[in-house]
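re: ur question from earlier - yeah i can do the single chain one, its not a big deal. heres the input i used so u can compare w yours
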Amino acid sequence: MQIKVRYRAGLAALTKISDESITAGNVKDVLEHVKKQFGREAEKLAKTMLIVVNGHSILMQKHFKTVLKDGDEVSFLPICGGG
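and the output i got, formated as tokens:
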């Protein structure tokens, strides 16, 4: 499946790109791509971020096993908090 991956905040700074198109069948495949292309540090950072598929958090789906379809968009977003 051809999907679009968007990197934001610290992950974009680490990878030096903001988006790319890759082939992946699920979110775990995307994380493996991040590790292979950009290293273990990038993978660790990616896992701490809010991961969304087409605007919906993977926490509300099947986490890293969330299945991807052709044309889906996976985004790694910073987690913001406040008080």
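The helical segments are 9-15, 27-38, 40-48. not sure if urs matches, ping me
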